[in-house]
């Protein structure tokens, strides 16, 4: 693209553009190294009069894409150019539905850059555009949630509640994403409108409660449990329930919160046949170990064997958690003589570890 022409397009110098076009009509087909036309440039910088003139001269440029597959609509939406979008909308049907190479619509671009007025201009009269997803399976609502744009997300849900039906490429619902973004306000709104989403599972079979517990977000977990405590019983693809995540992450407060309405989940095991004491012992969380030892079900948990025959004491020894080994081995409920499938007691495991055994590697 001629540099004088490029500068005129960037600055909105309509008179100079007219002179250059009069001298060489084909100059309007020129592009920058990234494939942007003069219309892209004028749209990006918000020069409405120049945009209108270029459309009159060369209307086909409206649908011309750059190397990113972006039309002038996309760049205007990305830059938040309300007047330019208003002009495009009066000229082109379905402006909010045009896609770039990533599958993003101008609406995705406007949401991603938090241009509220442009968002509502694009969806005015076309609420279904809010349901369109890009190549990554993201709807405009999910983009807003992921970026923490609470007000935008609220307005999208209000504008089209069916946006809550969306499931991404990983099977996650907007509630999953709101939990992962730790946006309690959006979570609360979604639970009011569509409470059944709490038990919806993603590609890993995890429901929103799994993720809230993994994040250690007490208030989020409390909110979800109050909505539907049955989510605490759902297993993921490794047969892990939310309680297991609390145990392996050392979250005693969450263990108490989860067990209060669902006390029988304490007995549940995952695919490795690990119970909550296995998980806490394996990861060296003394606070959880001590809490579990005080539970009425402790006697059933302390000597439970996994698929390899290992008890929580075995796992603590294998992972060099000497403090956990110490307390478990001195607890009257623990049978220190239990052997795993290698015919090893926990003490045998300690002796078999190289470099002096568990006593030389103590953490947590």
TrEMBL record:
PROSITE patterns: ANK_REP_REGION, ANK_REPEAT. ANK repeats lie at residues 34-66, 204-236, 238-260, 308-328. Pfam families: Ank (PF00023), Ank_2 (PF12796). The keyword Cell division does not apply. Keywords: ANK repeat. PANTHER family: NO MECHANORECEPTOR POTENTIAL C, ISOFORM D-RELATED (PTHR24121), PROTEIN ACCELERATED CELL DEATH 6-LIKE (PTHR24121:SF22). This is PGG domain-containing protein. It comes from Gossypium trilobum. InterPro entries: Ankyrin_rpt, Ankyrin_rpt-contain_sf.
């Amino acid at each position: 693209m001629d540099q004088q022409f490029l500068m005129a397009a960037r600055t909105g110098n309509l008179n100079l553009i007219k002179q250059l076009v009069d001298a060489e009509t084909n100059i309007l087909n020129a592009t920058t190294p990234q494939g942007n036309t003069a219309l892209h440039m004028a749209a990006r910088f918000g020069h409405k009069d120049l945009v209108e003139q270029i459309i009159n001269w060369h209307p086909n440029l409206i649908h011309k894409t750059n190397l990113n597959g972006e039309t002038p609509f996309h760049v205007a939406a990305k830059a938040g150019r309300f007047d330019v979008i208003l002009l495009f909308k009066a000229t082109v049907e379905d402006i909010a539905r045009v896609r770039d190479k990533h599958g993003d619509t101008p609406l995705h671009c406007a949401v991603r850059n938090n241009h509220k007025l442009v968002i509502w201009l694009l969806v005015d009269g076309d609420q279904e555009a809010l349901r369109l997803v890009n190549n990554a399976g993201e709807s405009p609502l999910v983009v807003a949630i992921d970026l923490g744009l609470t007000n935008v997300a609220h307005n999208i849900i209000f504008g089209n509640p069916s946006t809550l039906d969306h499931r991404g490429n990983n099977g996650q619902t907007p509630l999953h994403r709101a939990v992962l973004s730790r946006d309690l306000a959006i979570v609360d709104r979604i639970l009011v409108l569509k409470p059944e989403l709490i038990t919806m599972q993603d590609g890993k079979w995890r429901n929103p409660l799994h993720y809230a517990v993994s994040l250690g977000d007490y208030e989020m977990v409390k909110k979800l449990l109050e909505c539907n405590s049955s989510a605490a019983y759902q297993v993921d693809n490794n047969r892990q329930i939310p309680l297991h995540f609390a145990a392996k992450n050392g979250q005693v407060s969450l263990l108490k919160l989860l067990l209060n309405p669902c006390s029988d989940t304490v007995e549940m095991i995952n695919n490795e046949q690990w119970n909550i004491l296995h998980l806490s012992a394996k990861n060296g969380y003394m606070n959880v170990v001590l809490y579990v030892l005080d539970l009425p079900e402790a006697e059933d948990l302390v000597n439970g064997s996994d698929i390899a025959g290992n008890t929580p004491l075995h796992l603590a020894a294998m992972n060099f958690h000497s403090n956990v080994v110490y307390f478990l081995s001195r607890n009257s409920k623990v049978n220190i003589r239990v052997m795993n499938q290698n015919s090893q007691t926990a003490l045998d495991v300690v002796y078999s570890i190289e470099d002096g055994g568990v006593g030389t590697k103590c953490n947590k």
